[in-house]
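One thing: could you explain this record?
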Amino acid sequence: MWAKTVTGNFAKVIHGLNANQLTDQVIQRSKRMILDTLGVGLLGTSTEVCQKVTQYSKIYSSDLSSTIWGHLDFRLPPLYAAFVNGVAVHSMDFDDTWHPATHPSGAVLSAVIALSEAFPQKKKISGLDLLLAFNVGIEVQGRLLHFSREARNIPKRFHPPAVVGTMGSAAACAKLLALDQLECKNALAIAASYAGAPLANAATQIKPLHVGNAAKHGLEAACLALQGLQGNKQILDMESGMGAFYTDYNPQTLPTLQSYPWLLDQQDVAIKRFPAHLATHWVADAASSVRRKLVESSENLLPLDKIEKIILKVPEVKYVNRPSPASEHEARHSFQFVACSALLDGSMSVQSFSTENVHRPALQELLRKTQLEHPPDNTPSFDSLYCEVSIILEGGNTISDRCTTFYGHWRKPLKKEDLEKKFQSNALGILPAEAVEGIVETVYNLEKVEDCSVLSAFLSGQSARALPEKLRFL
């Protein structure tokens, strides 16, 4: 019998979905998401914000502990491992992005990996268990976002991972803990009371905490539900429940469990080539193309002195309109910075956002010449926006180019070799090469892994030689 409420319906789906229902495409896409998320998380461990929250979290101790990615001899209780690793994933805004708009993987993956290490030795969590829980968490986020047309555009008030990421993390952990339907309802209710963070903290060191908190709070919600804590059994049905986050919230029942259609089957994610807000990736590709045209006619040198004006035609997204970014976090959320940086260098990278590069004189000169325009047909949706970059030179000549789909977008996904290059580039500065190779092999074979603690071992920096007994596949 199908549940009478949307919340009950979600609980039934969370409880009832099984690994046999994962399609090949969902498995392949989610493994790409997992590999990418682990890579950006490992790179993120080197950031100032991650180091600060790591130091803070050291005040907590417990006999039960989970891996802090990139640390061989440092572990934390599962809740704080989920928190620190979640912060690491989003610390550079390098993690994946979905449509409707959110960063789907960071909160869910950080939570389920930390939780998987908390199970007793006799209850091993397999790679397939991890894949199923991960995908349940992704699915719940997508379904909730589809209940609002407002959510399909780039957000204006709440940061989506702090809202749906918390719910997805709770659902994923509920699945891994094998909660019954009533406990799943309670986990969602508890998570909803943890959800939400204002977008005003975008472009600051606080924004990564949204993903860390979503991971921690989702895990905590599932654990509290397991202990019998009860909340509103209709939390997803009510305007004062999840409807509090969206002005046009319209909840619907999910498809039946028989032949369940996963949203990840229908909608892939975007995987970023450089660490900045997704909307800036259209700007980077258009600006790089304009630079190539400029350089062709200027003997391979960018004619800075001949550039009179730079016009960027982009959607109106207030928190990515930053004409004079003063920090790396502001630069990652600046149409203007990314356009000028790509014009100077021809491409974007992790190094583009160093303090030295953010404040270099040539870039500051270009920023002063840059202005935004917002054509009415350029809607603020990751599925339809475009960017047009125009350079007006002395004498009135104009050189322009437009990007409608950047490389890495779900319409133009990264090739496998480019995804692996990104992961290796991110991870090799943090972990030994053997551990990096071990992560790649484990993720690519995740559905065959008998004990997914091998993944945590590699994430801490152990080599395959140190754990031969764990390298078993089904």
Notes: The longest strand covers residues 307-313.
